[in-house]
Amino acid sequence: MNRRDFLKKCIAVGAGGFVLSNRALELSISAKHPNIVFIFIDDMGWTGTSYMGSGYYETPRVDALSREGMVFTSAYASAPNCSPTRACLLSGQYGPRHGKYTNSSPSRKPSLERLIPIENKNYLPPEIVTIAEALKPAGYATACVGKWHLGTKDEYLPHSQGFDYVVSRDEIPAEPDVDPKRIDAFTDRAIGFMESSVNKNRPFFLYMSHHTVHGPVEATEEKIAEYEGKEPWDGHTDPNYAAMTEHTDDGVGRLLDKIDELGIRDNTVVVFYSDNGGPHGLTSNYPLRGAKGMLYEGGIRVPMTIRWPGVVRPGTRCDELVTSVDFYPTLLEMTSAPKPTGHILDGLSIVPLLKGAKKLNRQAIFWHFPAYLQGTDATGARDTDFRTKPVGAIRKGNWKLLQYFEELEFGDGPLPQLELYDLENDLDESNNLADAMPEKRDELLAELVAWRQSVNAPVPTEHNPAYTG
Q1: Is the pTM here over 0.85, yes or no?
Q2: What's the angle, vertex CA 439, arms to CA 435 and CA 443, rounded to 5?
Q3: According to the model, what pLDDT value does residue 312 have?
Q4: Where are the beta strands (DSSP E) in 42-195?
Q5: Which of 233, 242, 395, 414 has its CA 20 to 30 Å from the CA of residue 166?
């Protein structure tokens, strides 16, 4: 007899004096199956909201959410750009397991690439059990609203990967041809899904995946006018981008208002998170080094807030390292859904942190990017022709090590193979300590190499015959 049937029987016959009212049964079941609203923002940097310190962008609804939940100050994306982070989040696995390393081609300027990059999958393999599929046995209705970016063939699309209700950019009316209208259209559909699930008395998982604040920058003239003449803040200077950010915040606010209107606030977890750092040329990630497309902090450190009424103490902050692959085991624990048999999970549940624990039992988090990303003018980039060349990285405690694979293979360039940073004292990664602290460097390098071996991470070693230098 399952738990629901057992509780129903207790209502009917008492079961030794254990009697529950219908309302008590409802609360008991719902407490084990909270609704999940996962708000996934595209390209929002670590300081891309006012609650994270921006004195230029205005995000009052996300700011309010942060005061009602827990703010994570050391939250990371598992990749430096969009689609691989999404693959990591939905699979609960680091890139080497699913093979999604970048968007489209892993080669961007062949004549300047000394190595043949590792082949990239432009889809999430259908044999992988997504978090949406994993929540089905717990009775969840699932929705993917917005950006997918994990394959275009039917077997790769969200309706084949565990989502009951799917709304993509192609499935909304032609009228929303600019982002403010598209945000409204997506939000309308998401609200309809929540209403339908509540009416059917089903717990739900809403994967609300906005296309913003990714370019092209689009906003209404009224919003743009609010920022004209506003004092810049540490590289946040573009009124158009700021207006688009506020439009996105408005969409978040509408979802939060609907949760309250439906009376499900106390049993709904809300996650706010971004897929990578802010893009160079549109915003700044100061005081972090770099931008989207790099494994420096500006490319992978992102804003994150979780509200979980009755569990998370409002207004709290967590400095522990968390990353994209942690969401899968976290949602399993939140929802009491069973772990799919045979499915490897690389992350850890952060439920203990949400309940007040200060630490997770984790040694380090990792990145593997065996590809190239162009971008000749990106501030903070190591190279003048690329945002990044093939690279791996580890963060352990306050320490971070990057290993560049071209230098690993050739070792004859002007740049070092290894970069070691003490992020507690050098947040902008300006002081490479690899030579000054060889013991710490070698310790982290050994762990990074061991991790690569454990996940069968391919390192590019084949020389590129098209390279002209």
Answers
A1: yes
A2: 115
A3: 98
A4: 70-72, 141-146, 165-167
A5: 242
Band of the pLDDT at 175, cuts 50, 70, 90? confident
User: Which residues does residue 236 pair with via DSSP β-bridges, in sequence order?
Assistant: 233
39 has a pLDDT exceeding 80: yes
pLDDT for 373-413, tens place per residue? 998 677 899 998 999 999 999 999 999 999 999 999 999 88
Please give the structure tokens belonging to residue 183: 């945000």
Give all strands (DSSP E) within 3-76, no chain letters: 35-41, 70-72
Pick the CATH number of 33-354 from 3.40.30.10, 3.40.50.720, 3.40.50.300, 3.40.720.10: 3.40.720.10
Q: Which residues contact 24 (CB under 8 A, 6 or more apart)?
A: none
Pairing of strands 35-41, 141-146: unpaired
3-state secondary structure 185-245: HHHHHHHHHHHHHHHCCCCEEEEEECCCCCCCCCCCHHHHHHHCCCCCECCECCHHHHHHH
187, amino acid identity: T
Minimal CA–CA distance to 329: which of 346, 354, 342? 346
Q: How far is residue 98's CA from residue 121's CA, in Å, rounded to a whole number?
A: 8
The domain segmentation of the chain, as residue ranges, is 1-32, 33-354, 365-454
Residue with tokens 């080669």: 107
* Contact (CB, 8 A) for 401 and 447: no
**How far is 392 from 401, CA to CA, in rounded Å?**
8
Let me know: does 279 contact 375? Beta carbons within 8 Å.
no
Whether the bond into 252 is cis, omega within 30 of 0: no
Q: What is the pLDDT of residue 173?
A: 75
Question: Tokens in use for 458?
Answer: 């391919």
Q: Are 266 and 278 in contact (CB under 8 A)?
A: no
Residue whose pair of structure tokens reads 């991790």 in the numeric block: 451
Task: Label residue 375 left, alpha or beta by phi (over 0 means left) and psi (-120 to 50 means alpha).
Answer: left
Q: What is the dihedral of CA 327, 330, 335, 341, to 10 degrees?
A: 90
**Per-residue tokens: 365:** 């988090």
Token pair 């996962």 is found at 38
Q: Which fold has domain 365-454?
A: Arylsulfatase, C-terminal domain (3.30.1120)
What's the Cα-to-Cα distance from 399 to each of 427, 433, 444, 451, rounded to whole Å?
Answer: 10, 10, 8, 16
**Do 33-354 and 365-454 agree at the fold level?**
no
